[in-house]
Amino acid sequence: MSAGSLLMLRGALSDLFAVAVALAIPIHLAWQARRMTAEILRQSSQATLDAVVASCSLAQQADCDLYVEAETERYFRGVYNESQIDHSIRRLDQIDLHSMPNAACSTALDRARTSLYVFFAALRHASKEFCDAHCINDGGLRTLHSAYEACALNTDALRKELSRMRPAGIIEHNSALSKHA
Question: For the domain with range 47-165, which CATH number is right: 1.20.1550, 3.40.1350, 3.30.450, 1.20.120?
Fold first, then answer.
């Protein structure tokens, strides 16, 4: 090969390398941006799920204590905490439905949030009833229990919707909700 041919080959390879690098940099930046966006979405979804699960755990505690008739007085005199309920409701109010990755997750979140609002409203009503009469009628207890069941069902549906969006094992939650008889 002549020196001129080698120089042309070297020039062509240099040009090819420059084009490859020029294409690789934007592709790499786009990949990083997509990865960061996915991480932000994952963290937002996780924070949302944590808020819903924490509220549902509070509802579960109330349901378990009130489900046993002898525990009603102990619950309202010692465990019931209006400020915890207010805090849970504020956390639920702060959740933006548009932060969910798709319409199915937004719908599941809306159902979970609505069922938690219904439960906490029924719990507040039961607390007022207990303060007035020192007991809660059976209909009120059944309403609370069915409202809790809806909370647990809708929270689980939200968890499942969010887990479909990511590979298994990424979504974790602070507490596991257990069903009781």
Answer: 1.20.120
Query: pLDDT of the chain along its 181 residues, tens only?
Result: 677 777 787 888 888 888 877 878 888 888 888 888 878 877 888 888 888 888 888 888 888 888 766 677 778 877 888 888 899 989 888 888 777 878 888 888 899 999 999 999 999 998 888 888 877 778 888 888 899 999 999 999 988 888 887 654 334 333 344 344 3
pTM (predicted TM-score): 0.70
Q: How far is residue 51's CA from residue 45's CA, in Å, rounded to a whole number?
A: 10
Domain parsing of the chain, residue ranges: 47-165
Classify 87 as helix, strand or coil. helix
Any idea what the Cα angle at residue 151 is, between residues 61 and 39, rounded to 5°?
Answer: 100
